[in-house]
Amino acid sequence: MISNFKQIEELFNELDKVMKNKIDIYTIGGAVLLYQGLKSATKDIDLVVNDKKELIEIENALMKIGFVKNKVGDDYKNLNTHYLLVRGEFKVDMFVKKVCSKFSLSEHMIKRAKKVLNLDKLSIFLCSNEDVFLFKTMTEREGDLEDCMSLNKPGLDWDSIYNELLYQIKENGEDVWVTWIGERLDLLVEKGIEILIMGKIDQLREDFFNKFEKEKPKK
What we know:
seven-stranded mixed β-sheet
């Protein structure tokens, strides 16, 4: 487990020394919570880049500094990832533009992200709490619901979360995702979290199921 964001900074500094090209990296997982003191430790570093070429360069650079590819377990199945890059306590999960093959790194997310490191080759951005929250409602990994609860403690811009969800549905043409996200939000409500957009989410789910019934082939 990584217990201090300084460890992640040191990793990026080490990685920067073997990079060839300038690349922007967006972190969208537990590292964001660790940076803000909302989490005491994280086991995964979720990174998003803009294209496959960048991903390959970073993967190769990670392996140059001692990382190896390990297969993932069932709790990663919704992320549509087949391996992690691992070295000691560090587990790096890489994505190109889309996470879970559906959740895109949108222009809105890029604008909300905060630059925390500006190195020779690498610029490191932390995605906003709202975008990390939405990302974590799409996974089945152990601890992600607890992370959502932690992200809610300082307060969330629920309108931003809802608008980003609408954008993602429109952009990717995958309105079925609202049913999965709705189920995860239901669990958070059961844990005492007040979701100010829950009525809107319920309406999106109802619209989806009504549409599904209408389009279902008749016997």
